[in-house]
């Protein structure tokens, strides 16, 4: 049964989804060089092909006879079930989530909110539950969703983990691996390490604490972006925004032991009229933000 926690009324803004902004919670899987094409095209001969891959923050090699660029280790596949109390072995699984769009509620803007700001808001998404997978990462890959889709995208909602001293004692009943040592999670540091080094430093779980609701973060993702939640990361179940359902292929490890595979907390508002809510901008506002970010 999920643990229940109380959250004060809070409005959570949406941030740009980039490798750097999402690094404390996992990785964004996307083409790091979308304007760079493989060296071979229909009007090139084999003799004219370059053998050196383009500069990239992620290791890359030329593959498939020059017709592809292969980016290496774009996300970490983490299996910590060897530390689970049950001792039951895990297996790699792939599932599909068919996610319908969520309903947003109107923003009851207070008088001090300007008309310009109010018209840029599509609505509010109330956060009622968070979950984590303490012994595995979880990767969501959208299918059939264009990066330029004018009507549909998805919300990525995550929270840091509180130290146990600041959390609820009830979390002691939740099995988790040992909390990790602090390490750099920037894009360069993540991909400059070998998978073995990254496994030791960046993927040891988050500890047994409750979610830090005061520092919850929200991002809007497009069809060109998949996301990996690092092992033990508190996150909301998938939230699709827009007009149609989105299919997600999901990869993770699991051992079919309930609270070793998934742990949940229910979020109750502190007051009847208060809620922990994400302020969802209208799609054109999100696109403008993304374009501005791309020019930086």
UniProtKB/TrEMBL annotation:
Quaternary structure and partners: Homodimer.
Pfam families found in the cross-reference section: Ureidogly_lyase (PF04115)
Annotated organism of origin: Xylona heveae (strain CBS 132557 / TC161)
UniProt name for this protein: Ureidoglycolate hydrolase
Extent of Polar residues compositional bias: 30-51
Keywords: Hydrolase, Lyase, Purine metabolism
Catalysis: reaction(s): (S)-ureidoglycolate = urea + glyoxylate
Residue numbers spanned by region Disordered: 26-58
GO biological process assignments: allantoin catabolic process; purine nucleobase metabolic process
A GO molecular function held by the record: ureidoglycolate lyase activity
């Amino acid at each position: 049964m999920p643990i229940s926690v109380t959250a004060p009324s809070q409005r959570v803004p949406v941030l740009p989804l980039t490798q750097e902004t999402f690094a404390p919670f996992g990785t964004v899987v996307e083409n790091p060089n979308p304007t760079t094409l493989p060296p071979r095209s229909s009007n090139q001969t084999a003799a004219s092909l370059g053998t050196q891959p383009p500069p990239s923050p992620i290791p890359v090699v030329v593959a498939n006879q020059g017709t592809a660029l292969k980016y290496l280790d774009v996300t970490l596949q983490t299996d910590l079930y060897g530390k689970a109390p049950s001792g039951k072995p895990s297996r790699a699984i792939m599932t599909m989530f068919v996610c319908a769009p969520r309903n947003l509620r109107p923003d009851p803007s207070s008088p001090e909110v300007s008309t310009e700001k109010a018209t840029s808001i599509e609505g509010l998404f109330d956060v009622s539950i968070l979950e984590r997978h303490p012994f595995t990462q979880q990767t969501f890959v959208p299918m059939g969703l264009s990066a330029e889709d004018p009507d549909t995208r998805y919300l990525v909602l995550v929270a840091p983990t509180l130290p146990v001293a600041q959390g609820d004692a009830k979390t002691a009943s939740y099995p988790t691996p040992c909390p990790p040592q602090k390490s750099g999670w920037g894009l360069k540091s993540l991909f400059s390490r070998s998978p073995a080094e990254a496994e030791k430093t960046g993927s040891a779980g988050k500890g047994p604490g409750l979610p830090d609701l005061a520092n919850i973060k929200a991002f809007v993702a497009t069809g060109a972006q998949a996301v990996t939640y690092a092992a033990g990361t508190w996150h909301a179940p998938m939230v699709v925004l827009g007009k149609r359902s989105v299919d997600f292929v999901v990869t993770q490890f699991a051992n079919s032991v309930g609270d070793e595979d998934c742990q949940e907390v229910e979020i109750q508002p502190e007051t009847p009229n208060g809620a922990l809510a994400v302020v969802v901008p209208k799609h054109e506002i999100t696109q403008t933000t993304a374009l501005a970010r791309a020019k930086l």
